[in-house]
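Supplementary Methods, section 5.1.

A reviewer requested that the exact input to the structure prediction be made available. We therefore reproduce it here, unchanged from the version used in the analyses.
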Amino acid sequence: MIRLLNIMTRARKASTPKVGADAALSPIALGRRFYQIAVARTAEVNEPHGLRPLEFGVLVRLHDTPGLDQNSLAERMALDRTTAGAMVQHLEELGLVERTVNGRDRRARVLRLSPAGRALHDRQRPAAVAAQLRMLEVLSPAERASLIDMLARVVEANQAYVRPGAGRRPRNARRPASLESTRAK
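The structure derived from this sequence is encoded token-by-token as follows.
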């Protein structure tokens, strides 16, 4: 009996990949690939309507939170204010978003979907959800729920890093000397 348990333990250990043991299976590599797949699936649905990556996310956020101000939108989507402003401007030019001055704070802009934006959202949201489901169709419904739960827990536990520019090198920062010496060769 003990021998059988030892064999089963060795087999389980051999079949369980060690995090970081294979660079392609590291969380950062898998996260990047997952992101690429998610963006590509979303683009298939939204590019025919002239929407760039994340812009449909803005429509969803404004549908679910009408009257959101532009700075709050940037914060909730983990975007810098300049990027959020450019996306909102593009959506406004497409006639999908209306931007008005906040009556309580004249510096702030309140965002709402235009009738055309609401109509596009209502047509596209089922297609976007279907694209996400197709991406996860290799998983059972229980595995999908588990994946979403685990991703949400990881994001929640690492909120300090969920901000615009996190992990980027400041523009004027010099590369470490160890990297500069390899570049000169």
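Helices lie at 2-15, 27-46, 55-64, 70-76, 81-93, 115-135, 141-157, 177-184. These observations are discussed further in the main text.
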